[in-house]
Each structure stands twice: as structure tokens, then as C-alpha cells.
Amino acid sequence: MNTEQQFHSVMAECRALFEKKLHDYGASWRILRPSSLTDQLFIKAKRIRSLEIKKESKVGEGIRPEFVALINYGIVGLIQLERGYVDEVDISPDEAMVLYDQHANEALELMLKKNHDYDEAWRSMRVSSYTDFILTKLQRIKEIEDLHGETLVSEGIDANYMDIINYAVFGCIKLGNF
To answer: Can you tell me the distance from the alpha carbon of 116 to that of 151, in angstroms, rounded to the nearest whole number?
Structure first.
């Protein structure tokens, strides 16, 4: 499989899980404020790093499910940036899936452009580097949030979410059987 096909396979897996969670919980994530969403992403990335270093999970879930969670929460982040947070859920599962697909497609388009320019460099990288890059992106998001989005030269939070999604997809590809 080529990178685009592998990306689609990972995203199909993530989408299926997202849809099942929508069934169980609805779009309860619509209540998350930006800083809480950033912290949720941070928790997932820190757990990956911890598992990479300790080489043992006492909870039983491994690294790959956390990359899947980063992808789905990254897409939630893009939706929240677009729509803002609310005090009560304001979208149906069907509407949430339309938004999910829209942002997943945007992430794919960005990955294809960058993958062309970087000539598949991600394939030679270690999975632990994806983790570190994701943690760096999250630190940048925290700084941008603290600056209330008023940056001088940096990309916005949305660009960082897109990169987190794409690095997590690469992690899933490397850790999966594709």
C-alpha cells in the first residue's frame, strides 16, 4: 500500500471508533474548552512517551490506541476551533460525522502536500520522534492559548492540530500491519 492508502486505512479505523463513541456518548466533547482539549491531547501523548520509555503498560492498552485517540481528539480540536465550545451538546451524531469527514479530508490533503515535499521522510523516522513532535506541538498550542492566539509569526492552533493528526497517523501506520 502507498501512503495515501495507508492513511485511508488508519482513518477508517479511527472513524469507526469515533462513530461508535458518538453512539455511546453523543457529541459530549462539544463542551470541552480549548485548554481542556489541549490537556486531553497532552495526557494521551504523555502516556505514549511513558510507555515508550517504560516498555510496560499496567492498564493493558498499548501505544497504538493512544495514537488513534490523538487522531480523533485532533479532529475534535479542529471542530471546536471552527465552532467554539458550548454548554450543552448542540449537534447530532450525523452532523458530527460530516464535520469529522471534512477535517479528516483536510488532514489528508495537508499530509499529501507535505509528504510530496519531504519525500516520505516519515518512513525513516522512529515512532518515538512522532511522540516528541506531538508533545512539542502541544506545548506550542499551550503557548498560543496563553497568548490568546496573538502570535507574531507562528502558525495557528489549527495547523498544530493537523500536524498532530498526521504524526499520529504515521505512528499508527508504523505500529500496524499495513
So the answer is: 28
